[in-house]
């Protein structure tokens, strides 16, 4: 958390206003692939197997050096705390804040009884569910301060974050399955990272705050020929107020812990 505070210190001294703030954290604690489970899911439902995979193995109970759930801190609380610290800069810039969620943010992946996901084996997906709820619990208050906050998801695209568990054969097998899924009707298999970026770019540059619904999730989508478009999804907001209360309490605790951590050591040479 000291590094988050240090980022705040640097931003606060370098800028008088911030116009855009993107939260695109994707920390995971992966530990391999259940190849038997992967084969079964591919054989039973191709689209589902490469849209909502159930065969990625994730470690349970991993904590950060700050004694917080690692994925919880990296993907959600750390960014939220930084936003909290730079609110005056965001307000001065009438900023667009863009939280990048995921297709894999179903309510089943997160329990309000385990907000930091220390008992969960779906911490990545759970963190994205938290992103959804945190957005729903905060966007209206931010709007009063002149800040427009949006929730987006990039669909499915080629990323090297999981490639350590793939060889040449399985990598190209995955790529082929992505194309098959798109050809048979999935709108979410953008495959190309540039196409996946459409939703974040859209809400940041083209969205009209008077007509766009901030309760929706904006997704990057393509048709079977790869033509790009934006597709919206409704988000289940059950638990949003509880999550907001938890984050505000934790923020106050860390304000107290960090109040004496940063000093001005940047002496001009």
Can you walk through the features of this model?
- Helix 7 links the parallel strand 6 and strand 7.
- The chain is α/β, with parallel strands linked by helices and 269 residues long.
- Residues 265-269 have low confidence and may be disordered.
- Helix content is 44%, strand content 14%.
- It is built from ten helices and nine strands.
- The protein has one domain (2-258): Rossmann fold (3-Layer(aba) Sandwich), CATH 3.40.50.
- Pathway: Steroid biosynthesis; zymosterol biosynthesis; zymosterol from lanosterol: step 5/6.
- This is 3beta-hydroxysteroid 3-dehydrogenase.
Instruction: Characterize the largest beta sheet: strand count, sense, and whether it forms a barrel.
Output: 5 strands, mixed
List SSEs in N-to-C order. HEEHHEHHEHEEHEHHEEH
Q: Determine the mean pLDDT.
A: 93
CATH architecture: 3-Layer(aba) Sandwich
